[in-house]
Amino acid sequence: MLGPVILAASRSDKMRRFVSAAPGTKQVVARFIAGETVDQVIPIVQDAVAKGLEVTLDVVGEDITTREQAFAARDAYLELIEHLKDLDLGTKAEMSIKLSMFGQALEGGHELALANVRPVVEAAAAIGTTVTLDAEDHTTLDSMFAIHEELRKDFPQTGCVIQAYLFRTEADARRLAASGSRVRLVKGAYKEPAEVAYQQKAETDKAYVRILRILMEGEGYPMIGSHDPRLISIAQELARQAGRKLDEYEFQMLYGIRSEEHLRLAAEGHRMRVYTAYGTDWYGYFMRRLAEKPANLRFFVRSMVSKG
C-alpha cells in the first residue's frame, strides 16, 4: 500500500527537498538515471547498442510551470538529436516525450505542446528515428491521443503509450491496433482514482494480458513495457499465437532494472529496448520508480541508513 503514498509524495515540494537532500539519494538516483547531460548519456547509448540492445531516451523534467521551460525542454531534445545524428543508429535510439514537459498543462497547453513537439518529431525523422509520446495521468490522455493522431498524419511512425490499469485502455488499444501505429503497453505508474483505474495488481495484470492480446492480434507494432517474468512469457506466447516474427514486436524495460534480462532477451533474438532517462530534474521520475516496486524503496532506505 506504499505505492499510492509515494506517488502522492512525487507532487510534494517539501518531499522533493527532503529526498534531494537525503544522504543516500545520489547513489539510488544513479541506478535509474543514466546521467545529467547528453554528453554523459551518449556513451551509455553506444554501449547498449554494442551489446545488441536498443534504447529510448527520456529527458526528465515534466513538472514545468512556464512557457520558457517548455521551450527549453524542446531544445533539450533537439540537442539530443544533434548528438545522435553523427552516431547513425537509426531506430536503435529513439526518444520518449512527456507532453507535460512541452507545456501541455499550461494555458493553451494543447496547442503549445503540439507546436513544441512537432519540430522534435521532424528532426527525429530526419535522422532516421522516431518519437513515442508517453502516457501521463488520465486527465491528459485525450490531448495526448489527439496530438498523436495529428503527428501521425505526417510522421506515421510516431508511437504512443497506453496504461493497462485504466478502464478506458482496452477501447484505446482496439482503436490503435487497427491503425498500424506503434504502441507501448505499460501497467501504469500514476496515482489514479478508483473511478477510472484498477486499484489491485491482480486486476491490472489481467487487463494487461487482455490488452496485449488485442495489440498482438492487431495491425500495429506492440511494445511490451514490463519487467514481470510471467507477463514476458505470456507476451511471447501471444506473439507466437498471432504469428508474429521476432522483429514484429519488442520488449522494453527501464534502465537499471533487470539488466541481465535485457541481455538475455536480446541474445534470444528479441528486440529489447531500454528506457533510458537522463537530466537534472529527476525527482518525479525517480519517485515513480520507487512506487512501482517495494524492492526499489527498500534499496533507497538502506542507502540512506548506510550513508547517515
TrEMBL record:
It comes from the Bacteria. It is an enzyme of class 1 (oxidoreductase). This is proline dehydrogenase. Its cofactor is FAD. Binds 1 FAD per subunit. GO terms for molecular function: nucleotide binding; proline dehydrogenase activity. FAD binds at Q163, K187, G188, A189, K201, S226, H227. One of its GO terms (biological process) is L-proline catabolic process to L-glutamate. Keywords: FAD, Flavoprotein, Nucleotide-binding, Oxidoreductase, Proline metabolism. It catalyses: L-proline + a quinone = (S)-1-pyrroline-5-carboxylate + a quinol + H(+). Substrate binds at K98, R288, R289. Signal peptide: none annotated. Pathway: Amino-acid degradation; L-proline degradation into L-glutamate; L-glutamate from L-proline: step 1/2. Residues 46-299 form the Proline dehydrogenase domain. Its EC number is 1.5.5.2. InterPro entries: FAD-linked_oxidoreductase-like (IPR029041), PRODH_bac_arc (IPR008219), Proline_DH_dom (IPR002872), Proline_oxidase (IPR015659). The keyword Protein biosynthesis does not apply.
